[in-house]
Specification:
The chain is mostly helical. About 65% of the residues lie in helices and about 0% in strands. It starts with 17 loop residues before the first helix and ends in a 14-residue tail after the last helix. It is built from 17 helices and no strands. Helix 1 packs antiparallel against helix 2 (about 45-60), helix 3 runs antiparallel to helix 15 (about 315-340) and helix 15 runs parallel beside helix 17 (about 370-380). The protein has helices at about 20-30, 45-60, 70-95, 105-120, 130-145, 150, 165-185, 190-205, 210-225, 230-250, 255-260, 265-270, 275-280, 300-305, 315-340, 345-360, 370-380.
Length: about 400
């Protein structure tokens, strides 16, 4: 195995076997379908993750070698899981009135196992992996446009228990990955990439998610200004295409009424809903600020103190309520460890930007397959690291 300094990416150049590559392809394509309800609440990436874990375990047992997970990421993840387990067990002992369940921690552990297995299997510069995620997300976006536009207007599009923000986040991540490919691919592939960008971007807006609209803007700003010095022509094309796409959506009346009725900054507050629930939680901050109320216990805590069962909307607020300030700091430590280890230039900023934005509105994100898949490709696809490009440059 190639040597390297502690905490850095150290990878072997061993080629993936056909079954290993198939397992990765199936997992990457299945991650966007986490929104699709299935029997017994088992999601598509939960099932597709099993072959990835098996492939990593098989390769390790045969001594064929694995890419190593950076030590700083491993330690940060271990501390985060250990703290969430500790605070959950602690609160189950001292606050028996809450509904205690180990399942949220189990879900987090499984997501991490899939994350470690994927990072261990993928060779450096595996730029083909995001393509399969984009294809899966494109299929999700296509289903949105099978619904009559009048039905979508003014509504929040949902699939099962997944609300408009979760669905929009899936599409915004695909949008960010496709935009990155637009700037890095050869000109011959541009006519293929542009329609995909348009479809997933329009789908993210059609859901009715205000946070999704903000995420698209953030992604475009990062991409255009980030690539401007290296590729001014494509930056200009992206600006023009964004304006044209917006005008098309308006012309076809696909822009949901709720996006037109309120200014974008109001999306972050959403008075009458998200902010009011947050205010209820903050009234009792003294009870959760250090140790939290137990992982997955936030709605039950609110039910016991305010007689209202509601999630703490948002990744950041939900984590600090359930795991305390220590748990939130541990999770931020994982993100920082990934960013520091990746050294992937604009790629990981583009890939992670939707996660950062949707952290304001999507709760439970830290135990979803989507977040850890994005972190895995951010670690492995260092397209701008050390001046090397994993994608052909025009």
């Amino acid at each position: 195995m190639a040597s390297g300094s502690a905490g850095s990416l150290r990878g072997t150049d061993l080629a993936l076997g056909p079954l290993e590559k198939l397992a990765i392809v199936m997992y990457a394509a299945s991650v966007p379908f986490e929104v699709i309800p299935t029997p017994y609440t088992v999601t598509a990436p939960t099932i597709a993750g099993l072959p990835v874990v098996a492939a990593a375990a098989s390769r390790a047992l045969r001594g064929r070698g694995l890419n190593q997970v950076p030590s700083r990421v491993l330690v940060a993840s271990y501390l985060f899981v250990l703290w969430t387990l500790f605070t959950t067990v602690l609160n189950s002992l001292i606050l028996p009135s809450y509904s205690w369940s180990i399942m949220p921690v189990v879900s987090l552990l499984y997501a991490l196992i899939c994350f470690f297995s994927l990072v261990a299997l993928l060779p450096d510069h595996s730029d083909w992996v995001p393509v399969w995620y984009i294809l899966g997300a494109t299929a999700v976006a296509f289903t949105l446009f099978r619904v009559n536009a009048d039905t979508l207007a003014g509504l929040r599009f949902t699939i099962g228990d997944a609300d408009e923000n979760f669905i929009s986040m899936i599409l915004c991540i695909a949008f960010a990955l496709a935009v990155h490919r637009f700037f890095r691919c050869r000109w011959m592939y541009v006519p293929i990439v542009i329609p995909v960008i348009g479809l997933v971007g329009a789908g993210a807006i059609v859901t009715g998610s205000r946070t999704g609209a903000i995420s698209l803007i953030v992604t475009l700003v990062i991409a255009v200004f980030g690539f401007m010095r290296r590729n001014l022509r494509r930056s200009a094309i992206m600006v023009v295409l964004s304006i044209v796409g917006y005008l098309i959506i308006q012309t076809w009346t696909l822009l949901p009424n709720r996006l037109l009725a309120a200014p974008i900054p109001e999306a972050l507050a959403d008075r009458g809903g998200r902010a009011d629930i947050a205010e209820l939680y903050l009234r009792h901050a003294d009870q959760w600020v250090i140790f939290g109320v137990g992982y997955g216990n936030a709605p039950y805590f609110l039910l016991s103190v305010e007689r209202l069962f509601a999630e703490a909307h948002g990744l950041w607020l939900g984590l600090v309520i359930e795991a305390g300030i220590v748990g939130l700091a541990a999770f931020i430590g994982v993100l920082l460890a990934v960013i520091r280890s990746a050294q992937g230039g604009l790629f990981h900023f583009l890939a992670l930007s939707p996660i950062m934005v949707f952290g304001l509105s999507v709760s439970g994100l830290e135990r979803s397959a989507i977040l850890w898949f994005v972190l895995a490709i951010a670690l492995r696809i260092c397209s701008d690291a050390n001046g090397k490009a994993s994608l052909p440059v025009a």
